[in-house]
Structures are given as structure tokens and as C-alpha cells.
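Input record, target 12 of the design panel.
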């Protein structure tokens, strides 16, 4: 089976994409990294094509989108082009678009009846009534960037004034959920099944449990309640693969965010179950892909 790994320059050096590339041969998979910014999506009557450096590329059996910046319009357009050509893309493009938008994700998860922190989408110049402290988030972001904790009315006013400089963009207001020590839970879900989990503990004095903010990660045996919530959240968003972030509030588990291109590491090393994750992903791709046919010019393509 031939698979495209849709990624970027930085992604090629990240631990999880490297694990997928390394595991492919043992799974009988020929995998090729493809960078959308280096490709042209060509459309002509009856066929959709992908060209790279002046050459037409034979379409893959399946494509796996594993790029942190899934909010990049170019990435989403590239994935939609492949889907329109009949290529199975995992995760599906519309689920990618939803998963990269924190507000849209919460709308789907809350509508499914799953527990979430109190949240509101609004323009920075028309904020809803909030209880301080409150967390304000840009709707697109990863690694703890674009996330602000406002403990006072003055801090909230300054934060909203700064965010209002981006015309037309809403921000996400969210109840501040914390515990001692500060930690969150990250669950890896593939095709409706939990593969493993990571517990991230914030460094002293930090309110965010992000690795980029100095948190430490440890392998965590996912309990049944966390597993059910993580699987249900991925189903609500439409994701085949997701890294689901959970918080522990006063009344129990809460869904926080989901990453369609998750990174799972413990102390700078891959989590021990990454091999199983890769195997399940390739199994999913095999089950989803459809046969190729040849067009009049002899190129392989799918039925449109």
C-alpha cells in the first residue's frame, strides 16, 4: 500500500511523524512525505491531479494528514483536493478543519452532551459576562500559545484590547479549571479505540500543563471513564485519530481540546505504545483505501 504522509518541514523532525515513517516498512507500507506548499493541485475535466516540481505524481492508496498547522488553508485545500479525487484522507478534511478550531470543536462536543468547561465564543469587543479568573483563547493555536489567564478585570481588558486588533476574529472564553498539582490528561484514540495515555504535570508556578511551557509527561494507564469520554469526543468531531486533552474539574472529567495531529512523548522520548498506535493507523488506512484505475493517458487515478 502506498501512503502519503502530509506534513511540513518541521514535522519531518518531530518524534511521532518519524515513528510513522520508521514503522511503515514493517507494516508493508510504502510511505512518502508530501509537503502541500511544494505541490500544485491541478483540475481538468474528469481528473484531479497533484504535481510536484513539474512532474505529475501518481495518487496514493491513502493519505495521512499529520501536520501541527492543520489550520493552514493550504493544507486543508490540499486534503480536500485528494478527497475530491477519491483518495481516502485520514483524518477527513472537515474533521481536520473542526479539530483545529477550538470553538468549533467545543460546539460539536457540547452538542453531543459531553462534559466541557463553561465556554463562550465572542468578539473581544463584545465579551460575555464572565467569572474571574477566566481563560481567553485564540481559536487556533497549539502548545499553549494564544492562551491567556486573566485573574483581574484589568488583565482581561488588556488581553481583549490586544486580541481585538485582529478584525472579525472571535475568541474563546472559558472557565478556569485547575487542580493541585496542575496537570492534564492526554488520550490517544485511533479508529474508536484508546491506544494509550500521557499525564502532563505543569512545572512549579505554571498554570498550563503544556510541554512547551515546561511540563513533564509520564505514561498514564487510561481509566474507563476517561477512555469513554475521549472516544466519544473524537466521534463527535469526526476524527479517526486524535489526541484528546481532558481536565479534572470539581465535578469530574471535562473535555478540553483535541489535536488531530498529536505528539506523544515522555521526557523527550516516544511513549512506549507508539508502535501500537502506528500499527493501528496503518490497519485503518488499509481498511479504508479503494482500488486505483488508469485514465486514458495511463496514469493511475480513482473514480470521481
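The sequence produced for target 12 reads:
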Amino acid at each position: 500500500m502506498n501512503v502519503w504522509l502530509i506534513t511540513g518541514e518541521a514535522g519531518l523532525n518531530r518524534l511521532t511523524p518519524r515513528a510513522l515513517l520508521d514503522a511503515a516498512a514493517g507494516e508493508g507500507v510504502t510511505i512518502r512525505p508530501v509537503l502541500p506548499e511544494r505541490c500544485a493541485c491541478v483540475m481538468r475535466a474528469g481528473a484531479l491531479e497533484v504535481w510536484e516540481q513539474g512532474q505529475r505524481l501518481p495518487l496514493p492508496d491513502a493519505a495521512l494528514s499529520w501536520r501541527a498547522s492543520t489550520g493552514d488553508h493550504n493544507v486543508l485545500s490540499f486534503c480536500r483536493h485528494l478527497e475530491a479525487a477519491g483518495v481516502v484522507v485520514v483524518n477527513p478534511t472537515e474533521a481536520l478543519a473542526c479539530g483545529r478550531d477550538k470553538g468549533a470543536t467545543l460546539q460539536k462536543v457540547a452538542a453531543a452532551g459531553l462534559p466541557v468547561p463553561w465556554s463562550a465564543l465572542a468578539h473581544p469587543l463584545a465579551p460575555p459576562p464572565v467569572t474571574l479568573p477566566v481563560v481567553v483563547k485564540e481559536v487556533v493555536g497549539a502548545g499553549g500559545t494564544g492562551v491567556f489567564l486573566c485573574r483581574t478585570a484589568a488583565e482581561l481588558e488588556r488581553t481583549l484590547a490586544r486580541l481585538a486588533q485582529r478584525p472579525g476574529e472571535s475568541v474563546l472564553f472559558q472557565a478556569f479549571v485547575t487542580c493541585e498539582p496542575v496537570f492534564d490528561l492526554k488520550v490517544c484514540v485511533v479508529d474508536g479505540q484508546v491506544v494509550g495515555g500521557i499525564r502532563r504535570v505543569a512545572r512549579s508556578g505554571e498554570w498550563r500543563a503544556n510541554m512547551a511551557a515546561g511540563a513533564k509527561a509520564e505514561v498514564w494507564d487510561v481509566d474507563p471513564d476517561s477512555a469513554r469520554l475521549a472516544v466519544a469526543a473524537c466521534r463527535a468531531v469526526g476524527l479517526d485519530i486524535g489526541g484528546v486533552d481532558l481536565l479534572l474539574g470539581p465535578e469530574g472529567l471535562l473535555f478540553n481540546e483535541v489535536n488531530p495531529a498529536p505528539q506523544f512523548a515522555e521526557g523527550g522520548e516516544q511513549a512506549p505504545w507508539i508502535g501500537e498506535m502506528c500499527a493501528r493507523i496503518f490497519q485503518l488506512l488499509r481498511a479504508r483505501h479503494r482500488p486505483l484505475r488508469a485514465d486514458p493517458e495511463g496514469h493511475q487515478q480513482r473514480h470521481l
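The mean pLDDT is 89.
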